[in-house]
Amino acid sequence: MRVQPSRLQPGPPALKLPAPASWASAASPSPVSGPISASRGSAPDLCASSLAFLREGGRLVLHYRPGPAGGPPAQPGQSLLPVYTVLVGEPRPPCTYTLKEGLCVRSGSFGQAPEAVYIMVSAPGCECRRVQRGLFLRSPWLLLAPLLSPAVPQVTSPPCCLCPEGVHRFQWIRNLVPEFGVSSSHVRVLSSPAEFFELMKGQIRVAKRRVVMASLYLGTGPLEQELVDCLESTLEKSLQAKFPSNLKVSILLDFTRGSRGRKNSRTMLLPLLRRFPEQVRVSLFHTPHLRGLLRLLIPERFNETIGLQHIKVYLFDNSVILSGANLSDSYFTNRQDRYVFLQDCAEIADFFTELVDAVGDVSLQLQGDDTVQVVDGMVHPYKGDRAEYCKAANKRVMDVINSARTRQQMLHAQTFHSNSLLTQEDAAAAGDRRPAPDTWIYPLIQMKPFEIQIDEIVTETLLTEAERGAKVYLTTGYFNLTQAYMDLVLGTRAEYQILLASPEVNGFFGAKGVAGAIPAAYVHIERQFFSEVCSLGQQERVQLQEYWRRGWTFHAKGLWLYLAGSSLPCLTLIGSPNFGYRSVHRDLEAQIAIVTENQALQQQLHQEQEQLYLRSGVVSSATFEQPSRQVKLWVKMVTPLIKNFF
After folding, report:
1. Residue pair 107/458 in contact by the 8 Å Cβ criterion
2. Phi, psi of 293 (to 5 degrees)
3. Which of 246, 351, 424, 496 shows a CA-CA span of 20 to 30 A to 23?
4. Where are the alpha helices (DSSP H) in 536-632?
5. DSSP letter at 420?
6. Which of 103, 315, 303, 142 has its CA nearest to residue 215?
7. At residue 579, does pLDDT exceed 60?
8. Neighbours of 4 (CB within 10 A)
9. Of 482-486, 512-516, 592-596, which range is least confident?
């Protein structure tokens, strides 16, 4: 929600600070830094802190270090004091730097040199927001830091000091999550629901050690039963084999969605659980925010609006499918989504196994009699203390992320630098080195109920860093961007082509009752955003396109990033988030960032993007004049009140 100027107390005057003369012409990294000067009422610990910026061409890297003013800045990944938000940029548009989860995050880019740079720091809980095309509203807590020019150390050093800097420009992501370097030959982009379904069945049949499946729900039709039968057959073979394998099956679903109706996900899985109790685990995540009177009053069909388990990961031994697709018949036939298959990637499979286990441990465990129990020693998600439960869940999940990050750094050093005296050729001849990776996988986790916001940080940073000339293709089945994402799309210089569902391919189209009005609500949100694009005169830079395919629905989500001057994408995000309020604030989400230098894989990603966009039409003012786009008054009035729930 935007803040009205009348609601804010007057703050200290903003200082217009001249940008250094060398801003645009710096040929090599040139540092600038300075102590923070505080206005009245500012926090003491923030006053005794230092900010520093390293300028690399037009990009800024932020350093923040609690302690004596003028001290050395923090390195990315170093522990910090509580969260502070730093806004850096021209009067229009600004860029946002956010320090979250105790880490220093690099973001932001500028095209031409600005005449002035505004730096504003607000303490937690204080208002410092951007409104109306980059204007700033300031509270009495505002702090300003001038850009001076004493030297500061180089930052953003790689986890392994033996590796050269600048392998690729997105290495800052490994400051937050583990980095998995792989060969592009292990990555395959799938294109259709049928291909996704057949691959899953084939992988289940040959699994020997583990099958891990995380989804919103499991449907109850014949295709879903075929998948369950596949699991049962594989489990049976594992016991009858000459040398029985220790096959384990772990399934994570959402409690509310998986319990809906008399026949549901739970009843579909009970036969497996009863027949193979030592090998099968079914976990049902229940949001800690659905509790008490609220849990009793909200109807079954709408209780999932409070929060969900929304991660979609399908794992078979050492291979993983990341997708936005659920385990339901339409996702196997005529509901378009995205899917990527990571084949024989043991470290990535280990990470997602541990992640699903962690969420499973804080979830309810399905029993053979269709009851549920909590794991021994765990706080109950809706009967126990909410703060205590969320704290325990945060620790459980972050332990997985942090241990994997440390493990990957050590594995990298052992694999590529175990003997620095050996040449790469000698090592390759000896067979004790892996080929250098040309593709990097970064798992991005978003669990705001547990105060885990990694995906949000990385997505905002990617949108911020997209420079003039870059192209961002962003797609979502439910166009309901957060205010922060909308501001970045409208306030940065990259070109955007946003693909969304036309009303006829929206998953709620034709639904009974109130849910049937949801496609109209999305049309209303789309029209408001389109109007803002037009009012800013940015129709050439920001373009909306609607997907349409007869007899199909649309559920694809993610983005492809094309750097300036490139005809192929070097990065994609793929997984469960929809870039909306729910994805950021309510649900448990996971996706991966794939960064690749391999042209063949880049071509796969480009073809995936083209195939989706070819079935779309460009949105114009005439689009909203069509009879099917007329939104009833009551829908327009209700949408602002409920848009954060769907």
Report:
1. no
2. -65, -35
3. 496
4. 581, 599-613
5. T
6. 315
7. yes
8. 9
9. 512-516
Tokens of 211: 């099958």
Judged by average pLDDT, the poorest of 163-177, 198-212, 351-365, 560-574 is 163-177
For 312, the token pair is 């979609």
Short-list 24, 75, 580, CA closest to 308: 580
Q: Name the nearest CA neighbour of 121 among 102, 101, 145, 148.
A: 145
Q: Which residues of 564-579 are buried (b: 16+ CB within 10 A; e: fewer)?
A: eeeebbbbbbbbbbbb
CA distances from 101 to 79, 450, 488, 597 (A): 9, 11, 21, 30
Tell me if residue 440 falls in helix, strand or coil: strand
The pLDDT tens digits of the residues spanning 500-540 come to 999 999 877 766 666 677 888 889 999 999 999 999 999 99
Q: Please list the alpha-helical segments (H only) found in 173-289.
A: 193-206, 222-240, 255-258, 265-275
At residue 303, the 3 state secondary structure works out as helix
Beta bridge partners of 270: none
- 518 with 580: CB under 8 angstroms? no
Kindly list the distances between the CA atom of residue 383 and the CA atoms of 286, 377, 451, 506, in Å, as whole numbers in the listed order.
11, 14, 20, 36
- For residue 444, the cross-strand partners are 591
**Residue 63, amino acid:** H
Q: Is 134 exposed, middle or buried (0-12, 13-18, 19+ CB in 10 A)?
A: middle
First to last CA, the chain: 17
Cβ(459)–Cβ(571) below 8 Å: no
Mean pLDDT for 14-19 is 31
User: Quick check: 352 pLDDT over 80?
Assistant: yes
Three-state SS sequence of 565-577: CCCCCCEEEEECC
Q: Is 360 exposed, middle or buried (0-12, 13-18, 19+ CB in 10 A)?
A: buried
Residue with tokens 């036969």: 271
Q: DSSP assignment, residue 20?
A: P
Return the pLDDT at 644: 79
Q: Say if residues 80 and 64 touch (Cβ distance below 8 Å).
A: yes
DSSP string, 365-408: EE-TTS-EEEPTTPPPTTTS-HHHHHHHHHHHHHHHHHHHHHHH
pTM of the model: 0.77
Structure tokens at 476: 């979502």
The whole-angstrom separation of Cα 200 and Cα 195 is 9
Token code pair at residue 486? 């909308």
> In this predicted model, what pLDDT tens digit does every residue of 22-45 receive, in sequence order?
322 223 333 333 333 323 233 323
265-275 vs 222-240: helix axis angle to the nearest 10? 10
Q: Is the peptide bond before 159 cis (omega within 30 degrees of 0)?
A: no
- Count of H-run helices and E-run strands, the chain: 16, 32
Half-sphere exposure of 228 (CA within 13 A, CB side): 23
DSSP, res 418: S
The token pair at 550 is 């007869």
Single out the residue of 573, 640, 637 nearest to residue 605, CA to CA: 573
Active-site residue list: 310, 312, 317
How far is C-alpha 52 from the geometric centre of its chain's CA atoms? Answer: 28
Rounded CA gap, 42 and 384, in Å? Answer: 37
